[in-house]
Design goal:
The complex is a heterodimer of chains A (167) and B (294). Chain A has 167 residues and is of the alpha+beta class. Chain A has five helices and five strands. Classes of the chains: A alpha+beta (167), B alpha+beta (294).
């Protein structure tokens, strides 16, 4: 079946099969490399590296039928930067040193993006809950949480002081 | 991977849905959130599916207060939306706390933004936290078919893994959860967030004026061969959640389950955890019902 959707701000049209996942189509037919699979052979839901936003909500693309994208807005990490400028969350991740191997980073940032756009605050517990569907095997999460809190504070979310980033 | 359905049908009316389900017969599968289908697509279990019937165009995504304290939830309602609805209504969140607990026990918003309540019921597996919580809440399934609607107790609908008790031309339109004047809670034990629960328990309690438990329904799930539902167990009704009561609840749950044994946990360990989760869920539900444990 032929589907038409918005991919990172542009109209996308593609033929998909009923058994194809959104992941299959984004990576295989559109060359979107920020979506990844890790712990799964085909369709495990564990790690969050395949996270994309559908109409602003984080979902696992590997478990989403591709045809379900029809008529919706899909955002991947590639869609966050505008006119050559990184998204403030991307800047914060760089500044906080929240990236080590980088495998989880795209999913982490997209989950954080949905959290902040949904009114998320710099509260540590809320941030941890927001990224609970994303695993990181390098950082221990501390700097990831720092980065999201930093972006939240800079975006004027409730929070009184600039975040200090550890060494 | 041999999961190769040849078509997806997205009906625009109930009648259209009945016709397509009828004509595709046993080779059709209703796709709700799709997470279970896509999780299992490499296992060979779904190779028989030729037609996916997607009912997302039928307006089955809603949560309504029935006016009598009961909840009407459309079968395609996302768990994330149910949670948001409940958490903005404190009274409802206490009564239907088991459902809210079950949703938040799922690892991450990605899953909650994909899984539907109807899909959770229809996979018909004790590993589903949401289904276990719905069993404790006494949920009923409203099935729509060419001859009209019929209502069925969820425990009867959940006939076996991936085999709910629906006719080939029927689908779940709604789940109805009756009024609950008390409190409910869901507890589970997992080895890690990415695993199914080793054991889980949900309970609904209503209290008498003196604080004693007036009515109770306990549902056990997780790594079991089937869910267990215990109505008005004498170990709870008329009792306070004192240490002796909780010890009896532990024994009741432990002795009621038929657990799996695998690399994650022995059957005996699952039995023990069924008891522990039952005990914890009782304490939490009792507090939500307004009780004060001694």
């Amino acid at each position: 079946m032929r589907i038409k959707f918005e991919l990172n701000g542009s109209t996308a049209e593609v033929e998909v099969e009923p058994w194809e996942s959104l992941f299959d189509v984004l990576r295989g037919k559109f060359g979107i490399k920020s979506v990844k699979t890790a712990l799964c052979e085909n369709s495990c839901s564990a790690c969050g590296a395949c996270t994309v936003l559908m109409d602003g909500r984080p979902i696992y693309s590997v478990m989403t039928p591709a045809y379900r994208a029809n008529g919706h807005r899909i955002t991947t990490l590639e869609g966050l930067s505008t006119k050559g400028h990184l998204d403030p969350l991307q800047e914060a991740f760089l500044e906080a040193g929240a990236v080590q191997c980088g495998f989880c980073t795209s999913g982490m940032i997209l989950s954080a993006k949905a959290f902040l756009e949904g009114g998320g605050s710099p509260d540590e517990r809320e941030i941890k809950e927001a990224i609970r569907g994303n695993l990181c095997r390098c950082t221990g999460y501390v700097k990831i949480v720092d980065a999201i809190r930093m972006a939240a504070v800079r975006a004027g979310k409730e929070g009184k002081e600039e975040v200090e980033v550890g060494p | 991977m041999t999961f190769r359905p040849s078509r997806v049908i997205i009906p625009r009316s109930f009648d259209d849905a009945y016709l397509h389900l009828e004509s595709a017969g046993e080779s059709a599968a209703i796709i709700a959130g799709g997470t279970m289908l896509f999780r299992l697509r490499g296992t060979g279990l779904l190779d028989y599916i030729d037609t996916l019937v997607d009912l997302s165009g039928l307006g089955l995504s809603y949560v309504k207060d029935g006016g009598d304290g009961g909840l009407h939830v459309g079968s395609y309602t996302l768990l994330a939306d149910i949670y948001k609805w409940l958490s903005s209504r404190p009274g409802m969140a206490r009564a239907f706390g088991a459902l809210a607990d079950a949703v938040t026990s799922m690892p991450g918003w990605q899953i909650r933004n994909m899984v539907t309540i109807g899909g959770s019921a229809s996979i018909s597996m004790p590993q589903s936290d949401v289904a276990t919580s719905l069993l404790a809440l006494g949920a009923r399934v409203i099935l729509s078919g060419p001859s009209g609607d019929r209502s069925m107790d969820l425990r009867d609908y959940m006939a076996g893994p991936l085999s709910p008790a629906r006719k080939v031309n029927e689908f779940v339109r709604e789940l109805f959860i009756g009024s609950s004047e008390g409190g409910s809670a869901h507890e589970k034990f997992v080895v890690s967030d990415i695993d199914h629960p080793v054991a889980s328990a949900s309970v609904t309690l209503a209290l008498a004026e003196d604080g004693a438990i007036r009515s109770a329904r306990l549902a056990l799930g997780g790594g079991l061969r089937r869910n267990v539902v215990l109505d008005s167990p004498r170990e709870l009704v008329g009792r306070m959640p004192e240490p002796g009561t909780l010890e009896e609840v532990y024994s009741l749950a432990r002795d009621s389950v038929d657990p799996l044994e695998d690399h994650v946990a022995t059957a005996e360990y699952r039995r023990h955890l069924a008891g522990v989760m039952a005990r914890r869920s009782v304490l939490r539900a009792y507090a939500r019902a307004g009780g004060s444990a001694r």
